[in-house]
Write a structure and sequence with these properties.
alpha+beta; 7 helices
Length: 185
Amino acid sequence: MKKILITLILVLSSITIQAQEELTWHTDLDNAILISKAEQKPLFFFFTGSDWCGWCIRLQNEVFKTPEFIAWAKEKVVLVELDFPRRTPQSDALKLQNSQLQQFFQVRGYPTVWFAKVGAPVEGKTSFQQLGSTGYVAGGPTVWLDGSSKIISSFVPYTKEEQDAAKKLLKKNKATKKKSTKKKA
């Protein structure tokens, strides 16, 4: 009986790990914006302290690493991780980007999740329509996803022109990456 239980736990753990690996957490805001427009999905900004925030780790374990969340996220949002680690090194550009978004969304604690849509540029800078925010919510993935689904229900799709332009830029970016990869090899 113990062997069956241990085998079952190992199988379920490997399924959860494989499913989590299937999610793409973007750190490049510009690329995430293009994907958001191309796929007609709101942005999911996850403000976290990955190497020190206990509640962030708990939210990831109880919600983000579950099959329910993974299926929901793939269908509904573009995931963007905005990390504020204490020990993990980051580039200056990434630190600046994350800090600017933290200020824009007025994040005061972790974990915080903001759902947003890209708005029209203001003074040459990207703007966001804030759909709503949440953080750690007890009750597991069902409770968390119910609240988040209500928040994103106000998302209005991008125009066809915005979507088409984003698709073209993504295609161009992919071609550019392929060329630079071939040159390095």
